[in-house]
């Protein structure tokens, strides 16, 4: 017998604190019954536990990957509407890995995946201010005053404040502009909301860097295993040893 949050941590889904958040968000089922109590005790030898509709089990070895997520792909392991998910590109993986944070359905670029729950939780938590870099194409001419506004911050759809840490205009003309935006949080649709607030609709969004991990030569849909040095640097960013 084991507490559900500890079990999810052992399965590499997330940390214990992250597991509590998943339960509160009604993402966890035990024997196909949605869990609502974070302190629930389960029988790990008999009960079937699923997260987001996907069965989970304890990990034997930890994996760390980067995927160049293509456009129009869900950053989930299961989609009830049968849309293409990142699982379609991970068929060579013998063990299940989980996405670190989210990347919009129509966005492309760096997506970290791991079954190291503690690392995944910290990398995506606002507390640790992990750097994410996006290159965005927007409609219209993006000007310096727009950059100043989104650096200062705006109120997002969820009522929280969102802001860019850095904004660089790569090119600009009356028809469209290319902008590099550096964030340290990963709220839902945050980059799009920032751009829309200053009057620019996002036409293309590519994440080119997450915590120092870049795409390098990865084509859309391709992935690679992180080097031990890359894993150590990620852990160092969030105060984990190794």
Features:
29% strand, four-stranded antiparallel β-sheet, Structural Genomics Hypothetical 15.5 Kd Protein In mrcA-pckA Intergenic Region, Chain A, 242 residues, nine-stranded mixed β-sheet, 3 domains, alpha+beta
Low-confidence stretches: none
Q: What proportion strand?
A: 25-35%
Shape: globular
What is CATH's topology name of the largest domain?
A: Alpha-Beta Plaits
Number of domains: 3
Radius of gyration (Å): 19 Å
Overall structural class, as computed from helix and strand content, comes to alpha+beta
- What pattern of helices and strands is seen along the backbone? EHHEEEEEEEEHEHEEEEHEEEH
The CATH architecture name of the largest domain reads: 2-Layer Sandwich
Helix content: 10-25%
The CATH H-level superfamily of the largest domain is Pseudouridine synthase I, catalytic domain, N-terminal subdomain
Number of strands: 17
CATH hierarchy class name of the largest domain? Alpha Beta
